Automatic annotation (TrEMBL):
The keyword Transferase applies. It comes from the Bacteria. Belongs to the precorrin methyltransferase family. Its EC number is 2.1.1.107. Keywords: Cobalamin biosynthesis, Methyltransferase, Porphyrin biosynthesis, S-adenosyl-L-methionine, Transferase. It comes from Thalassospira lohafexi. GO terms for molecular function: uroporphyrin-III C-methyltransferase activity. This is uroporphyrinogen-III C-methyltransferase. One of its GO terms (biological process) is siroheme biosynthetic process.
Length: 287
């Protein structure tokens, strides 16, 4: 046991861990995620997992790409789930590493169901979801007492590839002061039209945050009415989340990430130094 007395689970052979890798910045990984990466035999990861995060894997771990971007052939969801079962049945420690949180628009639920169907034991490690992290890195709190007491996550992309047909636009427009929209870029024009048709003001502020928490992060502040045009004009690179609501205006004061005039560069400490600090063995004298 270390000085801190923190113990982490052993990754047993034949298990699958569904782990959230967060939105990009490796500093936003959980300790459970790092523990998983140090023990896994095989890692099935998707397109949204940052290369800097993959560097934390055991060097001899087998890497299996299951993403859908970058021109490589897309993997069917059922194939991925069954692949996890196959590896687990071979008695490997199987890490399924997904962007953000595995259970937020990440199909972690589907993969978990397949594991249940095949009697494969599994653990879920939540991750920081892109909507909340992206907003925070843009200086936008997803809730703020003066603005909203609720927030809604919505996807602009259903399994058919179109806007999901089970969205109740009237309820969303009326009932949800802040909307955090995932996979909304392709259909942003239709989404904003639906919200405005159901009573949302076109002047409401909307933030588009792309490649959130990575060095390439971009932020576009627009309005509900102008969002689709502005996104097209600027040519926003995916992935991107949209935040709609009064909270977007708080960025004017809370934009902590923008370089201030007198701060040119963020000073850094190496990750190894942090690891060394927390891995110092307990002092036997004190026990
Ligand atoms: N499970 C993920 C979401 C997967 S759906 C999570 O919890 O974050 C994929 C969508 O997530 C993208 O279309 C985009 O809307 C959003 N997304 C993921 N990573 C992002 C990032 N770094 N910056 C902005 N949006 C991101």
């Amino acid at each position: 046991m270390t000085k801190l007395g923190l113990d982490f689970p052993v990754f047993e052979p034949g298990w699958v861990w569904l782990v959230g890798a967060g939105p990009g910045d490796p500093g936003l990984l959980t300790l459970h995620a790092v523990n998983a990466m140090q023990q896994a035999d095989v890692v099935v990861y998707d397109a949204l997992v940052d290369e800097r995060i993959l560097n934390l894997l055991r060097p001899d771990a087998q890497r299996v790409y299951a993403g859908k971007r970058g021109g490589r052939p897309s993997s069917k969801q059922t194939d991925i789930s069954l692949q996890l079962v196959d590896y687990a049945k071979k008695d490997l420690r199987v890490l399924r590493l997904k962007g953000g949180d595995p259970f937020v628009f990440g199909r972690g639920g589907e993969e978990g169901m397949t594991l249940v169907d095949h009697n494969v034991p599994f653990r879920v490690v939540p991750g920081i979801t892109a909507g909340i992290a992206g907003a925070a890195y843009a200086g936008i709190p997803t809730t703020h007492r003066d603005c909203n007491s609720s927030v809604t996550f919505v996807t602009g992309h259903g399994s058919s590839g179109d806007v999901p047909d089970n969205i109740n636009w009237a309820a969303l427009a009326h009932g949800s002061p802040v909307l955090v929209m995932y996979m909304a870029m392709k259909h942003l024009r239709r989404i904003s039209a639906e919200l405005m048709a159901n009573g949302r003001s076109g002047d409401e502020p909307l933030a588009v945050i792309n490649q959130a928490t990575t060095p390439a992060q971009g932020i576009l502040i627009t309005t509900l009415a102008k969002a689709a045009d502005d996104v097209e004009r600027v040519g926003v690179e995916p992935p991107a989340v949209c935040i709609l609501g009064k909270v977007v205006g708080l960025r004017d004061r809370l934009n902590w990430l923008s370089p201030q005039d007198d701060v040119k560069e963020v000073r850094t400490v190496p990750f190894e130094q942090i690891l060394e600090l927390i891995s110092t063995p307990a002092d036997p004298q004190k026990d």
